[in-house]
Amino acid sequence: MPHFQWHRKIFTIFAIAIPIPLCFRPPVMANPTNILSSGIEIIGSIRFSNDMIIDGKIDGEITSDKGRVTIGENAVIKGDVTAGEVKVYGKVEGKITSQRCELKDKSKINGDIKSKVFSMEEGAQLSGRTDIGG
To answer: In the predicted model, what is the mean pLDDT of residues 94-120?
Structure first.
C-alpha cells in the first residue's frame, strides 16, 4: 500500500497599496439624497442626516438635525417633522419644527409650525399656530 506524506507549506502574502486612477473610482456624492417614493408606506420613525424626499405615506416622526426634507405632492405624513429645512407640497398632520419652512401652493398642514424663517404660497392650507423667528 502506498504511503503518502503531507508537507505543510507556508505562504506569505504581501499587500501592496496601489493608487486607483480616478476613472475607476466610484463617484462620491457630496450630499446624497434619500428618496421614499409614492408606493412606500412606513409605520415608525425616520432619522436621516442629509437630504430626504418623501412622496409616500409615513405614520411616525421624521427627524434630522440639519438635513433638508421635501414632502412631495403625494405624501401623507402623520407625525411630527423636525429638520433644518422643510418644504411641503403634500399633507402633514403634526408639528413642523425647522430653521426654514416653506408651504407650497397645494400643501395641507394640520398642526403647529415653529420656524425661524417661514413662507406660505397662495393656495396652501394651514390649520394650526405658527411661531416664527424665535
So the answer is: 97
